[in-house]
Design a protein that fits this description.
Elements lengths: L18 H6 L4 E8 L25 E6 L10 E3 L2 E3 L10 H19 L5 E6 L11 H5 L9 H15 L31 H34 L31 H6 L11
Parallel strand pairs: 1-2, 1-5
Antiparallel strand pairs: 2-3, 3-4
Helix pairs in contact: 2-5
């Protein structure tokens, strides 16, 4: 996104080499799978180009993924290098999360067959857990009822588990619940027991889908890492795993608190948060 300020014009200049370009020039095989939110929108044409701002123009010899910040995981806006592809057509049960892992595994196998000693840089960027939250039903079912206790009790469970795992010091104090305190700017969050049945059902469902999408994504990443291990290259491979993104999705913000048409309010959530109500 261009803002008009120096360094924020959405274009990476030729005097700024990417890590892929540097590694490619030093003998690495370079590839990019998944989200590309770097390529400026005005260069999306797959006929006229230019392609210097696409992954293949930035040092990546192979690209399989989508342009922009997000895409439908069932029918993605997908490219192989600079050619639009539609692998979901006629394929029941298709999901991009699995497809990206499948393609990365195929790539690793082909590379190993052609040049087993060639080092590689594989940039793997699945859509999860950015919106749209679209895991398969199989993964959603795994989390059915897991969040029915409500968010206060859930945060306490997560907090204690973090202590047990050593993520936070054992003497860490849990932040007070936002209930209008001055030090929190007067912010308030509703207690779980203050919600109605429909609200509880909706918010628990959103949490189930989000957790399912995260777990599903993590599983498919694991399949790619497993392939590296099967090839006997894991001990000589540096893996940088970043679980970040933007936090939760802001698309499903309906509170379902309308007293006149609560069902309509709840079901009018953005399609980007489906399959929350499928």
């Amino acid at each position: 996104m261009s803002t008009g300020y120096p360094g924020y014009d959405s274009v990476i200049g030729p005097d700024n080499a990417t890590v892929a370009e540097i590694l490619k020039e030093n003998g690495y095989a370079t590839s990019w799978f998944g989200k590309d939110h770097n390529t400026p929108g005005f260069t999306y044409s797959t006929t006229a180009g230019p392609f210097d701002q696409w992954p293949i123009g930035m040092g990546f010899q192979y690209f399989y993924g989508f342009l922009g910040g997000e895409t439908d995981q069932w029918t993605p806006y997908l490219f192989r290098n600079t050619t639009a592809v539609y692998p979901w057509v006629g394929k029941k049960g298709y999901n991009l999360t699995t497809d990206l892992a499948d393609d990365a595994i195929r790539y690793l196998r082909d590379l190993n067959a052609a040049a087993p000693d060639k080092p590689f840089f594989l940039y793997y960027v699945p859509g999860g857990s950015h919106s749209p939250h679209q895991p398969t039903q199989e993964w959603i079912d795994k989390f059915k009822g897991k969040f029915d206790m409500g968010w206060e009790k859930l945060r306490e469970q997560i907090f204690e588990n973090q202590k047990k795992l050593g993520v936070i010091p054992p003497n860490t104090k849990l932040t007070p619940w936002p209930d209008g305190q001055v030090e929190m700017g007067g912010a308030k969050l509703p207690k779980w027991d203050s919600l109605g049945p429909l609200e509880k059902k909706m918010y628990a469902r959103e949490a189930e889908v989000f957790a399912a999408y995260t777990a599903y994504t993590d599983y498919e990443i694991g399949r790619v890492i497993d392939e590296v291990q099967k090839q006997g290259k894991l001990d000589n491979t540096l893996i940088i795993y970043i679980d970040g993104d933007n936090g939760t999705s802001a698309e499903a913000v309906s509170t379902a608190r309308s007293t006149s048409t609560p069902l309509t309010t709840a079901s009018s959530m953005s399609r980007w948060s489906s399959p929350c109500w499928q």
